[in-house]
């Protein structure tokens, strides 16, 4: 029997391309990759974690689901243990944006290999930092899917390495491709982003600081939200 997925993990699972070899980096209990293999969405996959204990749980989950022969569990610092493997969809989820950037920075794959891969990235914190890093390091954001879970709203990035480095302004760093996935929680994501920025601006105004650029940013995000509300 395969494990049930949380709303967040289920959304990520739906974004993995059927029939592709996938890897889950920082796999924890292995629920995502085991589910993908057990449901037949992928022919085989890799569960990678830097810590032995979570990896042991992933091994157990794969065995209990009857897919031990399809899920290769590897002790790995980021992507290191996948060098030379024909991985097509790479999931790095449930960790901070800075850590995801560091994992990608340490990729063992060549430029040619990276161009054939798709990345599903879900930062728990600092999504703006990750968006900026991706653009500056030659990764292109294709789509984002927002999902609310446990009182928080997260965005799942669908990205590819193109080799084309580009600057990322503050608006793009904060909103990226939010709104590109029909029927997701994009509006909630932007509403909460606006609330945080408004609180920040209010604190700055109280301290006598200039908030013109921050208020302009709020206006730009507000317009993006209005566009979403006009296209439910």
Task: Describe what you observe in this structure.
The chain has nine helices and seven strands, in the order αβαβαββααβαββααα. With 232 residues, the chain is an alpha/beta fold. It folds into two domains: 7-181, 3-Layer(aba) Sandwich (Rossmann fold), CATH 3.40.50; 185-232. The protein has a seven-stranded mixed sheet with strand order 3-2-1-4-5-7-6, with helices on both faces. Helix 2 links the parallel strand 1 (22-25) and strand 2. The model has no long low-confidence stretch (mean pLDDT 96).
Radius of gyration: 19 Å
* Class inferred from helices and paired strands: alpha/beta
Low-confidence stretches: none
Distance between the termini: 37 Å
Largest sheet: 7 strands, mixed
Q: What order do the SSEs take from the amino end to the carboxyl end, as H and E? A: HEHEHEEHHEHEEHHH
Q: At the third CATH level, what is the topology name of the largest domain? A: Rossmann fold
The CATH H-level superfamily of the largest domain is Vaccinia Virus protein VP39
Oligomer: single chain
What is the overall number of helices? 9
Q: How many E-type strands?
A: 7
CATH architecture of the largest domain: 3-Layer(aba) Sandwich
Task: Choose one word for the global shape.
Answer: elongated
- In what order do the strands lie side by side in the largest sheet? 3-2-1-4-5-7-6
Strand composition percent = 15-25%
Q: Average the pLDDT over all residues and give the rounded result.
A: 96
């Amino acid at each position: 029997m395969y494990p049930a997925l949380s709303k967040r993990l289920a959304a990520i699972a739906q974004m993995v391309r059927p029939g592709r070899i996938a890897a889950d980096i920082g796999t924890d209990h292995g629920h995502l990759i085991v589910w993908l293999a057990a449901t037949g969405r992928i022919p085989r996959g890799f569960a990678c974690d830097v810590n032995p204990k979570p990896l042991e749980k992933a091994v157990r989950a794969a065995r209990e689901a009857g897919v031990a022969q399809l899920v290769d569990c590897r002790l790995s610092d980021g992507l290191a243990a996948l060098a030379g493997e024909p991985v097509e969809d790479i999931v790095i989820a449930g960790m901070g944006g800075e850590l995801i950037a560091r994992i990608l920075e340490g990729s063992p794959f060549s430029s040619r290999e990276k161009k054939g891969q798709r990345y599903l990235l879900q930062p728990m914190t600092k999504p703006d930092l990750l968006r900026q890093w991706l653009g500056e390091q030659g990764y292109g954001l294709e789509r984002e899917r927002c999902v609310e879970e446990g009182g928080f709203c997260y965005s799942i990035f669908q990205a590819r390495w193109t080799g084309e480095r580009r600057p990322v302004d503050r608006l793009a760093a904060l909103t990226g491709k939010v709104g590109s996935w029909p029927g997701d929680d994009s509006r909630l994501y932007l509403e909460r982003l606006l609330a945080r920025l408004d609180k920040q601006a209010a604190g700055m105004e109280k301290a006598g600081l200039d908030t013109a650029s921050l208020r302009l940013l709020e206006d730009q995000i507000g317009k993006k939200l209005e566009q979403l509300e006009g296209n439910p």
